[in-house]
Write a structure and sequence with these properties.
By secondary structure, the protein is α/β, with parallel strands linked by helices. The chain has helices at 16-22, 27-32, 64-76, 85-89, 103-114, 139-142, 156-167, and strands at residues 4-10, 35-39, 52-58, 61-63, 77-83, 132-137, 147-149. It is globular, with a radius of gyration of 18 Å.
Length: 182
């Protein structure tokens, strides 16, 4: 089997999912022998490559940069996994949705003007503050997602299980415990 081309992407989130990925500890050495990591916050790459086999996407779609990135990722990736609760549901990142229809402006007002200790004002230079979307979205509302890996963050053992299934050429089985009611 050819080595899988694997990527990880960090959108609007806290990076906790990537920290959980690093908690794979010794398995990372085994994984490095089986895959090529072609894009990640762990690497100093600026452009998402073509022909990626698997991408774990952390974080919600919060701004125009996130939206453009996830659209590019989807076009260039065979298997896309929403990685963690922000990617799966919007989670903490989506809390600003409750601020109402003008929430993007409310957030900028609060962050850059009301909370400023000096020089209040929203930066106007292009490329400094990406344009916020009016509503934070989980990844599947922006693009098609193949699998969902929940958790805040997902535990390393769960990440390992999914990666091993993909390495074996099997579709990931992301099943929780069966609950009995009544």
């Amino acid at each position: 089997m050819d080595r899988l081309r694997v990527a990880t992407v960090w959108l609007g989130g806290c990076s906790g999912c990537h920290m959980s990925f690093l908690d794979l500890d010794e398995f990372l050495i085994e994984l490095a022998g089986k895959v090529d990591l072609v894009f990640s916050p762990f690497l100093d790459l600026k452009a998402y490559p073509d022909n990626v086999d698997l991408c774990l996407v952390e974080g919600a779609v919060c701004n125009q940069d996130n939206l453009q990135m996830i659209q590019s990722v989807r076009r260039r990736t065979r298997i896309l996994i929403s990685f963690g609760d922000c990617a799966v549901t919007g989670n903490v990142s989506a809390m600003r949705n409750e601020l109402g229809p003008a929430n993007a402006q409310n957030v900028l007002q609060c962050a850059y003007i009301e909370s400023a200790q000096s020089n209040p004002g929203v930066p106007k230079e292009p490329g400094i503050v990406p344009s916020l979307l009016e509503r934070v979205q989980p990844v599947h509302e922006a693009v098609y997602v193949d699998y969902f890996l929940p958790g805040c963050p997902p535990p390393a053992e769960r990440i390992k299980t999914v990666l091993l299934q993909v390495l074996e050429g099997a579709p990931p089985k992301l099943e929780g415990a069966k609950l009995k009611f009544g």
